[in-house]
Amino acid sequence: MFGRILVPLDGSETAERVLPFVITEAKLHGATVSLLRVIAPLRQSLMASLSAIERAYGEIDNLAKDYLDTISSRFESEGIEVEMLVKKGAPALEIIQVAKDIGCDLIVIGSHGETGAPQWRFGGVANKVVKAKTSIPVMLIPTRE
Q1: Rounded CA gap, 39 and 61, in Å?
Q2: Contact 72, 82 (CB under 8 A)
Q3: What is the CATH classification number for the domain harbouring 110?
Q4: Which residue spans within 48-142 are E strands per DSSP?
Q5: Rounded to two decimals, what is the model's pTM?
């Protein structure tokens, strides 16, 4: 039923709690897993030069790729085809756009990410993705302790 599963991750252990479920679903359906890390826009300061901002994005991009490479090894060891994507922009918007662009059948996202936000039922990015006007199913996995 699912040929391609998109898994947005923010680098937190909380968000990674979806991974065992994704591994199970990918094996069950023979799906390819697309791991996505979205780099939110940096706040530009009047004191920061354009080249300093570009260097910062480059370093963040490299860290994001290294992070996804580490996560992808968990899927590869299970015999699951995996791809890694790093995008810059507003996380929820990028998640929805990437899902459309690469033809995902399912988005699996944790209810909470890096902030945990225990006072809310689910986090801001997850909330926006769930409420987005898209025909792609979104599975929200509880990740708050």
Answers
A1: 8
A2: yes
A3: 3.40.50.620
A4: 82-88, 106-110, 138-141
A5: 0.86
